[in-house]
Amino acid sequence: MNKKIPNIYNYLQEIALYFGNSGVNGKCCDDLSLVECIALKKAQESNLSIQEIGTALNFTKSGATRIIDRLERKGYVTRERSPIDGRVCCVPVTKRGSEVITEITEKKSANLEEIFQGLDPKIIDDIKDSLEILVKLIHQKEGGKFFLGKGLHEQNDSKFSCIKC
Fold first, then answer.
1. Which of 1, 8, 46, 97 might form a disulfide with 93, Cβ 3.0–4.6 angstroms?
2. b (16+ CB within 10 A) / e for 129-163
3. What is the pLDDT of residues 6-35, one digit of tens each?
């Protein structure tokens, strides 16, 4: 094994911890857990079914349903039956849900910009490119199972009909 691999793994853990539940100011995402925040963001980016959100998070349909239950209780999503296939439950994001995701994204981006302050723009580009390569490699290894990054939705062959009504 390349001797740098354990270091990379440790760095990724530190980054995950920082941006996870205990990240900025001791909070991840307002009143959301990290998983709830990612599920809400996925639902906002694409009109997905509960099952597709579960797939994106590598959760079972049952696990995804529990996450959506919590988001619905908080007023961030609603549930709608697909007009094409009534067995499918779509998860549109409410105005409140969109507002909280926008606020979280702005806060986290501002925090990251503060961290990167003073860095050469080329280094920032290199960091972004390196992370993008890592995400693509993970997608390849997992067979496109995960699709957390915006712009990677082409890997999600939607079997369901959660079209905007």
1. 97
2. eeeeeeeeeebeeeeeebbeeeebeeebeeebebe
3. 999 999 988 888 776 554 455 556 688 888
- List, in sequence order, every residue forming a beta bridge with 49; answer none if it has no partner: 90
- The answer to whether residue 144 sits within a structural domain is yes
The number of folded domains in the chain is: 1
Q: What pTM value is reported for the model?
A: 0.74
| Host H or E run for residue 90 | strand 89-90
How does DSSP assign 35-78, residue by residue? HHHHHHHHHHHS--BHHHHHHHHT--HHHHHHHHHHHHHTTSB-
The CATH number of the domain holding residue 125 is 1.10.10.10
Rounded to whole angstroms, the Cα distance separating 140 from 124 reads 24
